[in-house]
What does this fold into?
Amino acid sequence: MSQMATRQWMTTHEWMVKPMHQREWIERRGIMIWIAETFTSLGAGLYLVSLFINSWWGLLVGWLIIMFLKLPLHIAYFGKPLRFYRTLPPFSNAWKTSWFARGILFSVFFGTFGFVQLVFGQPDLVNLIGSSVANPIYYTFGVLAGLSAVGVGIYGGFIMNYVKGIPFWNQGLLPVVFILAGVADGFGLAMAVGLAGGDASVSWAETGSSYLLIINVLLIIVYLISARYTSEVAKISVKELLTGPSAFMFWGGLVTLGMVIPAAISVVSLFSGEVPIVLLIIAIVTHTLGAFALKYCLLKEGIYRPLLPRVAAY
Amino acid sequence: MRWGMVINLKKCTRCHACIAACRIEHFLPMGMNWPRLIAWETDVPGEELTTIPVRCNQCKDAPCVEVCPAEATKKREDGIVYVDNNLCVGCRYCIIACPYQNRTFLSRDKDPGYFPGYERTRFEKAGRKIYPHVVGTTEKCDFCMERIDAGLAKGLVPGKDREATPACVNTCQARALIFGDLDDPESEVSKLIKEQNAFQLHPEYGTDPAVYYIDGKIGNAPSNIAPREEQTASHLQHLSTMEERAKQIFGKK
It folds into this structure.
């Protein structure tokens, strides 16, 4: 009889005897981390996409999401929010080793460079000071803000990927999933900016969104398959995701809302040439909900290897 | 010099005295545990009981030190990893990153006072002056570093002199916890590690914990029941209690 199959007749303390879910970053106040991480994807992704398609309104919305939704939520989650400044140089040099500290630094750089870029890209100001003065500043800070946005979009993946005790997270692909999912989310929101009367090209964003959707579907399949073969505990994470308590979020949120519905609308667009605005709005909303579901699934299924691998057969 | 601990699982009687000693020593809040006893009990004959006392492993390459964004988790030259509660921002990344899960976030609900709903007692207030547990920060075992420092200042030897030794080690009635210098080949811990083939938890993480375990049967048959010839009086008393309990439950099958 295997050890796992035996009946436990009394357990005084099961701490880390069995595979155990991380709770700090998804339960109770941890929900703030989930929402903040999703806003990170949405904001950084939208900023990068807007840089690419040169949409000032997209840049503005992306910047606002990071500065006024993501960062406040992250700071509010801290046990001591007023000590936030202590994570930054010169108070701390933790950026040398900690992805968390690097992430905060990326966010500060992004906030600063993005602000300057937005100011010098503002049409009224450009008219006032002339494009010969404004454009060099706009593009220089655009490059800096873009690099910072990549950092903001990817650091969450590195933070989770570093955790050796959680094999489902401890995979090299995770940062790639984070940044590409963010860019896909950015295309979705760029469509929203275009539809709301902004300067983003809806058709362009829709095409980009379709390509990214295909890439992300493949990436998530590869991620789950590779996780399955990483360790027994990662296999449990995948199993719980597909058939366990998180299956509703995975199949309903990530697959159906985040992938199937936007993909179906993309197919309609491909064959009909033009998509009704209602369908586009549905695609944007479901895609964004899918972004929330992706981060939920990743955070929720962070399961630790037990302390006693030989005892528990892990 | 690197302080370390050897935990002899064959001797542990699961009496929880180490937990109580730590609680008293550090005036721990109600919901806070620095060391833990984890228990695994099955109905397989010969595998009735496994008790593993765990505490912060004071890793040489501690992930918690590396990930802390505020440099609040620090490592001393003697290998002790501790949290500076005046710097901790409470992001809980160290809790997530610790593969041994030996850190705890002190939230408001974990610190209701020993008599919830009433004012703190004079004893509690006095304790807070010595150990100001700060709500909103992370805590963990620090090998009673203040005892070690005070003892060394008096010329005492941690692990040998009680005054310079961690409280849990002092209180262990079965002498299952042994403390000393891992860098000293003549220390008791170094000899035990070498002679009794002590092991670390999850060495594959590359963290090099300073807490080692001895267990004669940890391989295929996980049990820490000491061989009869090694059992102490407290063992026999404890196990007889457990066996009675087992009989009651098995009788119901």
